[in-house]
Design a protein that fits this description.
three-stranded antiparallel beta sheet; single chain; 97 residues; 2 domains; 2 helices
Length: 97
């Protein structure tokens, strides 16, 4: 895990973690710092979650669809393709893209 036994303890460090799955995206903003307790002068790692968010409608599959549509649209706009059907109507082409 990030932050455990960190050597740079002089100042807090903010880290953004994200997980983009096929169907959703999760994000966490975490602050790592060190706390020194007296009189033992012992230092402990401190982890504080500053924010969490997720979007159930944004995932890798959504990005794949957007990129596919951009490529297909540019391909359809080639002058060699004028008057021909949309490439998105061909399952073999979609599978290759």
């Amino acid at each position: 895990m990030f932050g455990i036994d960190r050597l740079d303890r002089e100042k807090p460090v903010n880290v953004l973690f994200y997980n983009m799955g096929a169907m959703d995206t999760e994000v966490s903003l975490v602050k790592y710092s060190a706390i020194t307790e007296m009189p033992a002068n012992k230092t402990y790692e401190h982890v504080e979650v500053l924010a969490e968010a997720w979007d159930k409608d944004l995932g890798g599959a959504d990005l794949d669809t957007i990129i596919l549509n951009i490529i297909a649209e540019r391909f359809n706009q080639l002058k060699e393709r004028q008057g021909k059907p949309d490439v998105r109507d061909n399952p073999k082409v979609i599978k290759r893209l």
